[in-house]
Amino acid sequence: MNTIAAYALSKESHVFRARNLYLWYFVVTMLFSGGLIPSYILILKLGLMNTLMALILPGLVGVFNIILLMNFFRTVSKDLEEAVGAVKE
């Protein structure tokens, strides 16, 4: 999940128009988390109590890891990305 989100966010604004909106959403949620009680209420309302998914889903996306991967994807040259796309065709 981190890699998919980071790859999409690494694209420029004219390619992915909602990039800035999603990027700000991720940064704000990284700085101001809801806390323990809202997380408990969310798990309760989703019906995930006493399941393994209640442990997996909250830690599925790490915003700091997305930012690191996004900056890595920005360093990959456009020529390399186009070459990989040409091999697939």
Entry keywords:
89 residues; mainly alpha; 6 helices
Account of the 3D structure:
With 89 residues, the protein is mostly helical. Helix content is 66%, strand content 0%. The protein has helices at residues 2-9, 19-31, 36-45, 53-56, 63-75, 78-88. It starts with a helix and ends with a helix. The mean pLDDT is 88.
The oligomeric state of the chains shown is single chain
User: How many beta-strand elements?
Assistant: 0
Q: Round the mean pLDDT to the nearest integer and report it.
A: 88
Which regions contain 5 or more consecutive residues with pLDDT less than 50?
none
Biggest β-sheet strands, sense, barrel: none
Give the helices and strands as they follow along the chain. Answer: HHHHHH
Shape descriptor reads elongated
- Fraction of residues in H or I helices: 55-70%
* Content-based structural category: mainly alpha
> What is the tally of helical segments?
6
* Percentage beta strand: under 5%
Separation of the first and last Cα atoms = 25 Å
Radius of gyration: 17 Å
